[in-house]
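Researcher: Re-running this chain for the archive, since the previous output was lost when a drive failed. Same request as before.
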Amino acid sequence: MTAFYTNFIAMGNKVLVRGYDNGQQFKRRIRYKPTLYLPAPGKSDWQTLYGRYVEPMAFESMREAKDFVKQYKEVENFEIFGSTEWAYNYINEAYSGTIDWARDLLRVVDLDIETTAHNGFPYPHICNDMVNAITIGYQDRYMTWGLGEYETQHKDERYVQCKDERELLARFLDVWEKIQADIVTGWNIEFFDIPYLVNRITKILGETADNRLSPWKIIWDRTVKNRFGEQIAFDLVGIAILDYMQLYKKFRLIPQESYSLDHICHFELKEKKLDYSEYDNLTALAKENHQLFIEYNIKDVRLIRRLDDKLKMIDMVLALSYITKVNYNDAFTQLRMWDTIINNRLLDKKIVVPSKKAFMKRQAYEGAYVKDPKVGMHNWVVSFDLTSLYPHLMMQYNISPEMLVETECSDLRTEDILNGATNTTEWALAGNGHYFRRDRQGILPEIVEGMFTERNRYKNKMLAAQKEKEQSTDPDVRSVIDAKISKFNILQGTFKVVLNSCYGAIGAPWFRFFDVRTAEAVTLSGQLSIKWVEKAINEYLNNMMKSDDVDYCIYMDTDSVYVSLDALIRRVFKDQIAL
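Model: Regenerated structure tokens:
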């Protein structure tokens, strides 16, 4: 039967886990006994990534293991191996193999709050303005708490009129606790709705009342630095806060002039937020036309639901999380995903990871190649793209931390290789002059290759389902097939996201396996590939056109070449068409 987690976190000596088992929601405190690994005096069943024998050392508690690491941290030549991310280790052990998760069981809540704004923008850390409306969307219903009269407009709405803000917040919390949400989403909720609710509930209902927002009765605050400076966010421990604005920015990859909900909904849904322009502001709207004010609040929540019905970003986060065995929020962080993927894969082979290094300052290394565009109008432009360039380079050159040949480095660089210089060896020579062993496949190329296989499998299933749909005229059958198409599309897209995030992880100094030589081997091999494409295209076209060293490539960027075929078209079709 279906058993899967929805959230987990290490706290003290226990892992706090929420999830579903046989269709029932559960909440458990697991006393986890971790294992670390020390150098073995002789042969052992366990090895490090670099082939050194180690032996397991079991601990009675996470605190005991943590104290052990701390005790020997400064001891010279005393090495400890294995991941210290205890909660992730537990999840890998408890949910081995493929996790069979069920989307229909999950309790996903869409949230939007409104506040008065008597003194300018209602900043969450100040929260002097009262909350005068809250709407949540849950399952197929919408529930709203407000301070004035409202006549419901749809059968799926329920409205609760409250006498004051205290009652509004208290009655909202009563329902919130009954729902026991797994995920809460909304537009910009991470930095507005959630922190405003937490701070306002504390101010109005008392110091500990905000804990009711968490199923574990625990709320943590954290400081986030972004383009707005430092902002305070809150974690409702046990619930994933999936800010839909952040999801959109990360996964949609279509630059927008604005990331307001109004603009995005107009772009994606051809629909906008409710217009209240005849009123001075929302505070005036709430006072002068409370009916329209609540309609405005409810529609914002409906728009979020419609966005996800179209984009399926929450489903993508779920697929990402269960493929990589991380928390839902970790889908935003490529380092956590890849650290967990590699650790779990190696443990299956009885191989353990090294301890995390101390934070390394960012080391400058050469990145992707971008050719300055030829300015002006160009006709008959075509583009050539290299599919998933960086993951393919990892497979081609066997780029992986344990495959790096430490003692050898060639003087050859990309330009030398492009000009025909060679260096015969049993190793793979990357674009930065470093060698990688080829006697066996490295862990990164192995994982990447496996994910490509899975992505292609789901992509082929999606294409087959699309063909099946075209051959059917039965509406019910087509509806079932549509669900299959959507599922397979999400899965193939999910593997694409994970694959494309791999380089971002290995190129980050916070990554457990960061090595500037490995990171640069990818980028400079990418330069070599794209410049080779440019060279081959120009040689081919110059030969065809009988021209002398004409550069037909008008622009290049990382994995794409843009070529002007204007001269070729004019020559071939000069008698057939007027250009």
